[in-house]
């Protein structure tokens, strides 16, 4: 029997998600309880330890399933991509209502009140989900109002069910110069596969989180000679988006930013560390 991928399947010796009953050994199997992320962005860790590196990040308003709570930590699974890990208990809210809108700009401010000259409460990344309960205008600026009285610039959000931009490459380009962050998945810091996933999310498409998952599951394989806008180039542990037949966009530790780079020059530069590309895929058929 194949061992389930622990990144995408919640199981430990003492506890596992119920759908894995009969597939793994555990003392107890549970359904879990729904919750939502209650902080702007939070790292998902492989163990309940703040000194542990993050595997990925979750954004404000994203849905999770909680399987266990202990010692100030929650063991959760992200609804959007099935990623499993640990979050501080303070980062989740059990009673949060269904969000109505999603942030569509790279990052924006959540103000304490609808006035841009007033202090802001927090910074929200593209992909964050909020519940809008009203609207107001102040000095010609339009704001969406949240239940707690905070406000966000109305043009920076749109209804979750609204028609979405279909060009995920254009979305990826909005992240140019964003700092590189291992495990990052937000407008505050992002890694190569996070850039692909979040850009696709904003066009209504699902994408797995990690590079190896994307290389195996996104779209269909193609030959290098077929590369065009929107295709993906994979190295071992790295992925880049083709902006056109000659240029890629990717988050790279080389510059510690999201950059636009000539594809052939990037292949030569990356080769000493990751060797040659090992796959090409067309995610949108």
SSE inventory with pairings:
Layout: E1 15-17, E2 28-30, E3 33-37, E4 41-44, E5 56-59, E6 63-70, E7 73-78, E8 84-88, E9 92-93, E10 101-103, E11 107-111, E12 120-125, E13 129-130, E14 132-138, E15 141-146, E16 151-153, E17 157-159, H1 168-173, E18 185-186, E19 189-190, H2 192-201, H3 211-217, E20 220-221, E21 232-235, E22 238-242, E23 247-252, E24 257-262, H4 263-274, E25 279-282
Parallel strand pairs: 1-2
Antiparallel strand pairs: 3-6, 3-9, 4-5, 6-7, 7-8, 10-13, 10-17, 11-12, 11-16, 14-15, 15-16, 18-19, 20-25, 21-22, 21-25, 22-23, 23-24
What does the model show?
The chain is mainly beta and 285 residues long. It has three domains: 15-93, SH3 Domains (SH3 type barrels), CATH 2.30.30; 101-159, Roll (SH3 type barrels), CATH 2.30.30; 168-282, Alpha-Beta Complex (endopeptidase fold (from Nostoc punctiforme)). The chain is built from four helices and 25 strands. It has helices spanning 168-173, 192-201, 211-217, 263-274, and strands at residues 15-17, 28-30, 33-37, 41-44, 56-59, 63-70, 73-78, 84-88, 92-93, 101-103, 107-111, 120-125, 129-130, 132-138, 141-146, 151-153, 157-159, 185-186, 189-190, 220-221, 232-235, 238-242, 247-252, 257-262, 279-282. The chain starts with 14 loop residues before the first strand and ends with a strand. The relative contact order is 0.11. The model has no long low-confidence stretch (mean pLDDT 95).
